[in-house]
Amino acid sequence: MAVVLDLLFADTYGYRLVRPEMVEVSAWLAGENDAIADSLIARSPYNLLRYGDPGSLPIPVRVKAFAAALAQVETIDPQKLWFGEQGLRRFADPGLDDHIAGWWEIAKGDEEARHLLLRLVDFGGQKGGLPVVRQVAYDRSTDEITQLLAGRALLKLGEKADRTAYARHVTEHGSDLSRSIILQALDALFPEEIDVGAFFALIDKAGVTGEDDIATILPLGSELPAGLTRREDLHRFLTEVVARSGDFSGDTVDDEKPFREAFSQMAASAALRLLDYHPADIPDVVTDLFLLLHESHRRIGSEASFKTLGEAFGASPWRRRTSLWRSIVRLRTHPYARDDGELNIWFVQHLGWPVLLSLADIDWLLLDVRERTDRQDRLTALRAAHTLWRQFGGTDGDMQRIVDAVADDAELSAQLAAWRSPPPETPEMVERMREEWDSWFKDAPPSLAPELMRHAIAHAMQEKALGKLPARIARQIAASDTAAPSSAVLGPGDRFDMTAIPMIAGTMSRSNAMGNSCKIQFIVMAPYAGWRVRPVLKCSLEIRPVRPGPTRTDLLHPAGVSQLRRKLSPPSSAQNRAGSEGESTHPSNL
After folding, report:
1. Could you tell me how many helices (H) and strands (E) the chain has, helices first?
2. Nearest 5°: CA angle at 566, between 561 and 569?
3. How far does CA 303 lie from the centroid of its chain?
């Protein structure tokens, strides 16, 4: 045995040491041999909690080891004390409960010793520590971590009366408690012991930013509202979030809206739960929330909870209808809104309303044209119905329904007639539009512009591109003369001559900082009122010229033009199926 002890331990210059290479071996063997355990306890008792298998140690060995660790805590590396949760769980045992009160008398005068004992009580579920944590959790004279550990152990091991008493303590003394203690209590006690009103009162005291000024309320997470089972509580929760989220500012910098950023995930979760109680509509508070979060959290479309919530807005006609009108009411106060408060669907969508309407939505829009009491609302509904009819190629019957809806209102009837037959543009406006068209091709030689137009139109007529065009425009372009696409049918019986106004507008952007690429953008335009135009398809591609170190004019070199034509040329069916890497044109519906 002496040989084994010499292999494991060493006594040098009066220091009793564990050989570094034998630290873990000695901890494993201590569970099998009392002599090794005693030698290890005398030298480094904390090793029995950190290494080997603490769960295999006899209870008497554990008692001696922990008492020795508390006595020698000043000699233990503090960092090591905070790495060993699993070891403490295995070390714990009901057989240690009777010793905890005595250990507290040893530990209470040293901060690290207190933390070690309270972590054993918390992680190990030592019921014998309840009398200790029932006192320490309320002791505001001790350090913050001691209060945190004691409070966590109390909430885990205590009875309902303990939870109720601790909730009252946090609520009454929140101003004197640290942010970490408040958030930990809310995570454990909301909503069973702390209601919605008290929750937000404590949040107001704790704040939503940490010491590094980052918006966070961890450990509170998106699952917290799951405890709210009543419609009224969910509604009040969201109302409190909206009330603290501020008004629209037109600024999308998250740092200036910390409350929205901190509560975004949790609020989205609560909103989805509230919608379970509203299968046919969207409550106003949910619409308000979504618009505010959209302003300060512009990437919400890529996050699962926000995507699901946005899709819920369009799940039924009534949900689309109720959320649209609430959005209009809220967005009339937006800094980007016109002074007269007149809005259109595209503006509302741009500012966060997550719904794409279709021709079928004309039904309820026409009801609103007739039934809304506010005249501005009726005009908005009429504009939306007319826009949908035009965008999706509505029938003559659909237009007649729109005409009938305003038949008893001379002013709205006149407005509809003006939209259907706009007056010609003034000569000044025509000249301005001509100059604008000329500016599209200011950097392209005359010989290149027709090539850009021809190939871009060919791309637009591909099945993939046509699938992203509005239905009416797609049908009309597809019905045009594809063999010679110098013109396209864009309206019933009307042919649009590209030699008069280019249908494809192309711009060349500046090369990037390294001078190794140049981006070209094409916009397929469809005229709908005189010289007025609107984009219906947008394509962009990046050209990398043949020779290194290009400038903008390199694209006009014959080799650059040749490469440009290859990039613009429609890929073959085989290439489409193979997903050729060479295709760099990506159309998207505007």
Report:
1. 30, 7
2. 120
3. 4
Measured distance CA(258)–CA(465) in Å, rounded: 41
Amino acid at 233: D
| Whole-angstrom distance, CA of residue 397 vs CA of residue 7 | 97
Distance of CA 483 to the CA centre of its chain: 47
Cα–Cα distance for residue pair 137/153, rounded to 1 Å: 9
Question: Cα(31)–Cα(37) distance, rounded to whole angstroms?
Answer: 7
Inter-residue contact 509 to 523 (CB < 8 Å)? no
Q: By C-alpha distance, which of 524, 548, 549, 556 is closest to 538? A: 524
Amino acid at 441: F
Question: Residue 253: what pLDDT?
Answer: 57
- What are the boundaries of each domain within the chain? 2-158, 208-331, 440-578
- Tokens matching residue 133: 């944590």
Report the alpha-carbon distance of residue 482 to residue 458 in Å, rounded.
8
Strand-strand pairing, 487-491 and 494-497: antiparallel
CB-based contacts of 138, cutoff 8 Å, min separation 6: 169
Cα dist from 532 to 62, 380, 527, 528, 554, whole Å: 86, 21, 6, 6, 34
Contact 551, 525 (CB under 8 A): no
Output the CA torsion 48→53→57→62 (10° steps).
30
Q: Report the C-alpha dihedral over residues 42, 48, 54, 56, rounded to 10 degrees.
A: -40
Nearest to 362 by CA among 392, 338, 341: 392
Residue written as tokens 């980052």?
214
Instruction: Give the phi and the psi of residue 409 in degrees, each rounded to 5.
Output: -130, 105
128: Cα separation from own chain's centroid: 44
Within 8 A by CB and 6+ apart from 368, the residues are: 321, 325, 377, 378, 381
pLDDT at 377: 92
How does pLDDT run across 540-562, given as a tens digit for each residue?
433 333 333 333 333 333 333 34
DSSP 510: P
Biggest alpha carbon distance in the chain?
110
473-496 pLDDT per residue, tens: 444 444 443 333 333 333 333 333
What does the alpha-carbon distance between residue 526 and residue 272 come to, in Å, rounded to a whole number? Answer: 40
The 8-class DSSP code of residue 378 comes to H
Residues with Cβ within 8 Å of residue 573, at least 6 apart in sequence: none
DSSP state of 226: G
In three state form, how does the secondary structure of 247-270 look? CCCCCCCHHHCHHHHHHHHHHHHH
Q: How many CB atoms lie within 10 A of CB 454?
A: 17
Q: Report how far residue 260's alpha carbon sits from residue 292's, in angstroms, rounded to the nearest whole number.
A: 8
Which string of DSSP letters, residue by residue, matches 549-580?
A: S--GGGGGSHHHHHHHHHHHSPPPHHHHHHT-
The CA-based angle 547-553-556, given to 5 degrees, is: 80
Q: What is the SS3 assignment for 245?
A: coil
Structure token pair of residue 500: 């008069």
Q: Enumerate residues 6+ apart whose C-beta is below 8 A from 584.
A: 541, 542, 567
**141 CB-near residues (< 8 Å, 6+ apart):** none
For residues 301 and 89, what is the distance between their CA atoms, to the nearest angstrom? 42
Whether the Cβ atoms of residue 285 and residue 239 lie closer than 8 Å to each other: yes
Between 335 and 433, name the one with better pLDDT: 335
